[in-house]
C-alpha cells in the first residue's frame, strides 16, 4: 500500500510542474496565470475527491442531513485523506461551514509560522478540489476556498450552493 | 458512522487510493496538455526524476541502509526495501546480464494502475513512467548513473510488469568549486 510520503512528494511535484508549465516563456506570472494554475490543481483534486468518497462510503448508510455529511467530512474523510480530524467546525446553519485544521498535512512541511505564506495557496488548491469533489458526489454542490494566516493552521470555507 | 474494524488496513488502503487516484489525475492532465504519448512519457520521467532526487533522502533516513557494495546489492535494496517501503510490493530481481550490469524487476502487481485502463488512442503511453524517473533520480544522488525503462506492462496486455535497469557508470562526487 502506498506510503504517505509518496503522495506528499507527488503532490509537491505536481504543483511545481503546473506552475513551471504556466510560466514557461514569460518572465513573471500575472494573476491570470496563477488563477489558471489554481484552477487546474483544483480540477485535479475534484476528480480525486469524487473517487475517494465513492470508495469510502460504499458500505455506509445514507446521511441524515447536510450537517451529518459535514461531520463525516470532518471526521472520517479528513482522517483518511489528511491523516487527522478537523479541529473545529463552525457553521451559520445557512449553508456556510468553516473547517479549521491546525496542522494541515499539506502545510506542515512548508513552514510553521509566517514564512512562505504567499506560497501556501499553491499547496491548498488541490485539497480544496478534493473536498469539493467529495461533497459533489454526496449530492452537495459547493464552493471551497482555503485561507492561511499562520502555517500549518488552515481554514477551509465551504459554501453549499442551493439550486 | 465510523467503522471501527480494520482501521489501520483501511487507512493504509485509503492512502494508497489517494496516491493512485492523484497519479491518475496527473496522467490525465498531462494527456490533455501534451499532444502525444511520447511527450507525456517524457514529462512523467522528468517529474519522477525530480521526486527521486528528494525521495532518496527520505529513504536513507528511514531505512538506515548503508552503502551498497555492488550493483547486485543495490538491486536487492531497491526491490526488497524501497519498493516495499513506498509501494508495499516486493518485485523480484531476475534476468541478470552476464556482465552483472543489467537486471529486471518483475512486478506482479502495480499499485499505480489500480482502476486504470488505457484507452485505444494511447497505446504508446507508458503510464507508470514516473517510476523510471524516480529510480533514475534517486540512484543519481548516490553516485550511480542508470538507465531505467519498462519492457513489459500489464496495462498494455503483458502478463507482468517488467522494469529493466542498466548500470551506466559511477558518477564522480563533484564538490562545488571553493568547497573544502
TrEMBL record, chain A:
<dbReference type="GO" id="GO:0005783">
    <property type="term" value="C:endoplasmic reticulum"/>
</dbReference>
<dbReference type="GO" id="GO:0030008">
    <property type="term" value="C:TRAPP complex"/>
</dbReference>
<keyword id="KW-0524">Neurogenesis</keyword>
<comment type="function">
    <text>Component of a transport protein particle (TRAPP) complex that may function in specific stages of inter-organelle traffic. Specifically involved in the early development of neural circuitry, likely by controlling the frequency and amplitude of intracellular calcium transients implicated in the regulation of neuron differentiation and survival.</text>
</comment>
<dbReference type="InterPro" id="IPR037992">
    <property type="entry name" value="TRAPPC6/Trs33"/>
</dbReference>
<dbReference type="InterPro" id="IPR024096">
    <property type="entry name" value="NO_sig/Golgi_transp_ligand-bd"/>
</dbReference>
<dbReference type="InterPro" id="IPR007194">
    <property type="entry name" value="TRAPP_component"/>
</dbReference>
<dbReference type="GO" id="GO:0007399">
    <property type="term" value="P:nervous system development"/>
</dbReference>
<comment type="similarity">
    <text>Belongs to the TRAPP small subunits family. BET3 subfamily.</text>
</comment>
<dbReference type="GO" id="GO:0006888">
    <property type="term" value="P:endoplasmic reticulum to Golgi vesicle-mediated transport"/>
</dbReference>
<dbReference type="Pfam" id="PF04051">
    <property type="entry name" value="TRAPP"/>
</dbReference>
<dbReference type="GO" id="GO:0005801">
    <property type="term" value="C:cis-Golgi network"/>
</dbReference>
<dbReference type="GO" id="GO:0005802">
    <property type="term" value="C:trans-Golgi network"/>
</dbReference>
<protein>
    <recommendedName>
        <fullName>Trafficking protein particle complex subunit 6B</fullName>
    </recommendedName>
</protein>
<keyword id="KW-0333">Golgi apparatus</keyword>
<keyword id="KW-0256">Endoplasmic reticulum</keyword>
TrEMBL record, chain B:
<dbReference type="GO" id="GO:0005794">
    <property type="term" value="C:Golgi apparatus"/>
</dbReference>
<keyword id="KW-0813">Transport</keyword>
<dbReference type="InterPro" id="IPR007194">
    <property type="entry name" value="TRAPP_component"/>
</dbReference>
<dbReference type="GO" id="GO:0030008">
    <property type="term" value="C:TRAPP complex"/>
</dbReference>
<keyword id="KW-0256">Endoplasmic reticulum</keyword>
<comment type="subunit">
    <text>Homodimer.</text>
</comment>
<comment type="function">
    <text>May play a role in vesicular transport from endoplasmic reticulum to Golgi.</text>
</comment>
<keyword id="KW-0564">Palmitate</keyword>
<dbReference type="InterPro" id="IPR024096">
    <property type="entry name" value="NO_sig/Golgi_transp_ligand-bd"/>
</dbReference>
<protein>
    <recommendedName>
        <fullName>Trafficking protein particle complex subunit</fullName>
    </recommendedName>
</protein>
<keyword id="KW-0449">Lipoprotein</keyword>
<dbReference type="GO" id="GO:0048193">
    <property type="term" value="P:Golgi vesicle transport"/>
</dbReference>
<keyword id="KW-0931">ER-Golgi transport</keyword>
<keyword id="KW-0333">Golgi apparatus</keyword>
<dbReference type="GO" id="GO:0005783">
    <property type="term" value="C:endoplasmic reticulum"/>
</dbReference>
<comment type="similarity">
    <text>Belongs to the TRAPP small subunits family. BET3 subfamily.</text>
</comment>
<dbReference type="Pfam" id="PF04051">
    <property type="entry name" value="TRAPP"/>
</dbReference>
<dbReference type="InterPro" id="IPR016721">
    <property type="entry name" value="Bet3"/>
</dbReference>
Amino acid at each position: 500500500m502506498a506510503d504517505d510520503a509518496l503522495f506528499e512528494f507527488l503532490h509537491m511535484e505536481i504543483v511545481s510542474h503546473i506552475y513551471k508549465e504556466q510560466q514557461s516563456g514569460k518572465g513573471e506570472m500575472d494573476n491570470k496565470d496563477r488563477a489558471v494554475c489554481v484552477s487546474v490543481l483544483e480540477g485535479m483534486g475534484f476528480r480525486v475527491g469524487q473517487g475517494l468518497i465513492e470508495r469510502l462510503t460504499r458500505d455506509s448508510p445514507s446521511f441524515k442531513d447536510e450537517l451529518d455529511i459535514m461531520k463525516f467530512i470532518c471526521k472520517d474523510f479528513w482522517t483518511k485523506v489528511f491523516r487527522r480530524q478537523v479541529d473545529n467546525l463552525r457553521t451559520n446553519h445557512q449553508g456556510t461551514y468553516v473547517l479549521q485544521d491546525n496542522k494541515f498535512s499539506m502545510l506542515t512541511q512548508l513552514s510553521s509560522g509566517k514564512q512562505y505564506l504567499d506560497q501556501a495557496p499553491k499547496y491548498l488548491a488541490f485539497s480544496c478540489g478534493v473536498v469539493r469533489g467529495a461533497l459533489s458526489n454526496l449530492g452537495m454542490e459547493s464552493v471551497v476556498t482555503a485561507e492561511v494566516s499562520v502555517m500549518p493552521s488552515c481554514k477551509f470555507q465551504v459554501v453549499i450552493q442551493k439550486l | 458512522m465510523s467503522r471501527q474494524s480494520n482501521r489501520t488496513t483501511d487507512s493504509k488502503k485509503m492512502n494508497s487510493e489517494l496516491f493512485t487516484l492523484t497519479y491518475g489525475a496527473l496522467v490525465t492532465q498531462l494527456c490533455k496538455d501534451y499532444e502525444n504519448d511520447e511527450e507525456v512519457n517524457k514529462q512523467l520521467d522528468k517529474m519522477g526524476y525530480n521526486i527521486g532526487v528528494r525521495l532518496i533522502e527520505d529513504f536513507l533516513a528511514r531505512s538506515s541502509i548503508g552503502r551498497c557494495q555492488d550493483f547486485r546489492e543495490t538491486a536487492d535494496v531497491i526491490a526488497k526495501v524501497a519498493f516495499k517501503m513506498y509501494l508495499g510490493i516486493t518485485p523480484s530481481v531476475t534476468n541478470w546480464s552476464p556482465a552483472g550490469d543489467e537486471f529486471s524487476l518483475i512486478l506482479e502487481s502495480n499499485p499505480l494502475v489500480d482502476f486504470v485502463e488505457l484507452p485505444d488512442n494511447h497505446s504508446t503511453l507508458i503510464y507508470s513512467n514516473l517510476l523510471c524517473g524516480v529510480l533514475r533520480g534517486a540512484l543519481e544522488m548516490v553516485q550511480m548513473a542508470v538507465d531505467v525503462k519498462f519492457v513489459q506492462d500489464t496495462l498494455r496486455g503483458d502478463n507482468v510488469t517488467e522494469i529493466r535497469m542498466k548500470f551506466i557508470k559511477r558518477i564522480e562526487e563533484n564538490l562545488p568549486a571553493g568547497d573544502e
